[in-house]
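Aim 2 progress update. The chain analyzed this quarter is reproduced below.
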Amino acid sequence: MDYLFLLAGLFGLFFGGEALVRGSVGIARRMAISPLLIGLTVVGFGTSTPELLVSVDAAWRGVPDIALGNIVGSNIANILLIIGLSALVWPIRVMGATLRRDTTVMMAAALALVPIFAMGQMNRLSGVILLAGLMTYLIWAYRQSGDAIPDDAGLPAPASVLVSGLWVIGGLIALMVGARLLVDGAVSIARSYGISEAFIGLTIVAVGTSLPELATSVIAAFRRQSEIAIGNIVGSNIFNVLCILGVTALIAPIPVASRFLTFDLPVMIAVSLVLTGLLLARPVIGRGTGAGMLAGYAVYVWAAQG
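Predicted structure tokens:
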């Protein structure tokens, strides 16, 4: 039964995330929001909604390792697993400085977690600081909106605001149900096999909540829309740290296990730095680099068991 909950939760998150992004992009287009803001904020936030609901639900129910592991593990999987797979589908060509600047914001957000995690608890003040950083980023992104990402976020938009709204509502319902089932199944499996909740959060839950990012980026890669493939991941990673951890800490303060400060967060910072370096140093992330990222993710999962 626990495995059925886990599987049902994954399906709920995947289809709910797809519906939410589809509806959000449709509404954003009808409201004449710039393509850049759609790519880096609406799509980034929409594909991060599963992480938000799972982390808040886990924090409320007293499993903080899953709440934190979900976010840290998702950011690692987004870079190594999803960008790696996208690059294997089609080499990712980076054009312009916009995504490089946003990758720098992603890097800064990751580094901001070091002093917060070092305190041993994410309290409400930490949540306020992260959300203030999010607002600063959104204002900056809006002012920089002249550099447009192609007006196709890798997903077809519905025909009207009404239909878009129905997609959003349906997506949110599926996400809420999926989040609850996923946490239920993951916690039960972890406890029955003696696997740490942190490892479950960093791997199974993290990859599960990253399914919308995976779908969006791989579809974008198939369509040769490189900046959407990268922009979706960069925007999602920024929202994961600044918005989702911020909101979760504001709702329910989270104790931080020592492993996150000594192992998992340094890995997240390291892979963020690698991505930043790739975007600054070369115009293309090729298949060889993608294969190396996938191998790196396999090594991380193996090492995270300890």
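The longest helix spans residues 161-193. Confidence is low (pLDDT under 50) at residues 147-155. These observations will guide the mutagenesis experiments scheduled for the next reporting period.
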